[in-house]
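This protein record is not my work; I was only asked to verify it. Where you disagree with what is written, explain briefly why. This is what I was given:
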Amino acid sequence: MAVPDWIWFVFIFAFGCCIGSFLNVVIYRLPRDKSLITPPSACPACGKHIRFYDNIPLVSWLLLGRKCRYCKALVSPRYFVIELLTGLLFLGLFILYFRTDLRTGTPSFLQGGWFIYLLHIILLAAFIAASAIDLELWVIPLSICWFATAVGLLGSALGGYIIGPDKVSGHALLPTASAGTASLAAGAAIGLAISWVLLATGLIKRSYESADSQNSPDKPEELTEQQFNHRLEVCREIIFLLPIIICSVAAYWISRKSSVIQSLDFSQHPVIAGLLGSLWGYFVGCGIVWATRILGTLAFGKEAMGLGDVHLMGAAGAVIGPIFVVVAFFIAPFFGLAWAGSQMFFKKTRQIPYGPFLSLGILAVMILHDWIYSLIVDYLLFTIYY
């Protein structure tokens, strides 16, 4: 017996609001190096533990009049906004994926589409937390990005068994690797391991190494500008990236020369194809932002974009794949321009970090996935035919 849509909608919205409540914990505690598990939720002003009936998403904030029950301190509207936003996002994505024709390539919910939906809401939930922290403190905790990356790698490896490799590759639902992209990903992974060893042994230096307080929300921007030669710092990052680039190119060259590697059919090994495809998506996502960071810093002498943005897009690439993360990167500036235009219209000058714009670009690509994919396929077919 089919479950009525309204039950699905209520359940998913409520579930999203509950996840949003947890994201509020992440947003407050993670950048302050506090445990996400203990102690239980408490009022930041008076320290009183919040009872379960005062911790119901959306409802409690409204019933208590936006105040703590005990000390009457105002509770930030951010808590309500994050819960509502997460609930609406979870519900909206479900409706778009399974109740509209916008993503016809995605299987129905009960035929494996739930797996794509799950991976996407996990990524978006992580990006909501990262964007909120970025807006408040101008920093993106790397642990959020690493968590989302791990989800992408694991999900891509398992996706071929849950949905089927033909559907996954036929509609680009998850990253998959051919012989060429597999060699690129494997070579880049070897190069990354070499770079880590070089860092650990002190043979190469970290950029902004003395900036232990760089992630501190209390560090004034002026001190950062005076303390570092930004062009020199990104040169250190270039040195770190060289083994990754060299090993990736070398592995690809070897694969092109080896008939054995070229003959490998990765569709028979969905775990390997998915894992290496996701890994390549991670490197592409990181690479396009890191290249922008390096070129912008060399050109203007100021740090352009942050390393948090690099890892943010790397996580996105691990989930949605290398092509779509590049498209998202070029969509993100349009959201930035819209924000800048609104600031000019309302005569405000407040700047915000770039992480939220990147997150919106990822969301746009998820929604417009089939349309973008059809454009890419049509262009490739046109190019091959002519």
About this structure: Residues 1-137 form one domain.
